[in-house]
Amino acid sequence: MVGVGGPGTSAIAIILREMGHDVSGSDVRESQVLERLRSLGVRINVPHDPKAIVGCDIVTSSAAVRDNNVELTAARAAGAKVMTRAEMLGWISPQATTVAVAGTHGKTT
């Protein structure tokens, strides 16, 4: 997961781990979020490195990550399936009970 330190992408990483998947990710700098992900068994690389995607079947990224990111480029060249965050959510949703909360303010509380 490229940009795994972001709020949406890190949540997806946690869900995938809870589902029993082997998850790895990268970001541009260390953070408390990355430390939490490590504690849950997510392998983390800082900074982005094209070698980080070796062996990955699916690569997804935060919306903040540019399409020409070195890991996304390497994933495409290696033939890995590259998914947007929204596509990954679409892949996860049928496998679990899903509740959607919408609105402009107060969703985190």
User: What's the N-to-C terminus distance?
Assistant: 26 Å
Number of helices: 4
Q: Which range does the strand content fall in?
A: 5-15%
- CA radius of gyration is 14 Å
Low-confidence stretches: none
Number of domains: 1
Mean pLDDT across the residues is 93
CATH fold topology: Rossmann fold
Helix content percent band: 25-40%
String of helices and strands: HEHEEHEH
> In this structure, how is the largest beta sheet organized?
2 strands, parallel
Q: Give the overall silhouette.
A: globular
Please give the number of β-strands: 4
Protein described:
By secondary structure, this protein is of the alpha/beta class. The chain has a single domain (7-95), classed as NAD(P)-binding Rossmann-like Domain (Rossmann fold, 3-Layer(aba) Sandwich), CATH 3.40.50.720. 34% of the residues lie in helices and 13% in strands. It has four helices and four strands. It has helices at 7-18, 32-39, 70-78, 85-92, and strands at residues 24-26, 43-45, 58-61, 81-84. The strands form two sheets. It has a two-stranded parallel ribbon with strand order 1-2. A two-stranded parallel ribbon has the order 3-4. Helix 2 links the parallel strand 1 and strand 2. The chain is globular and about 40 Å long.
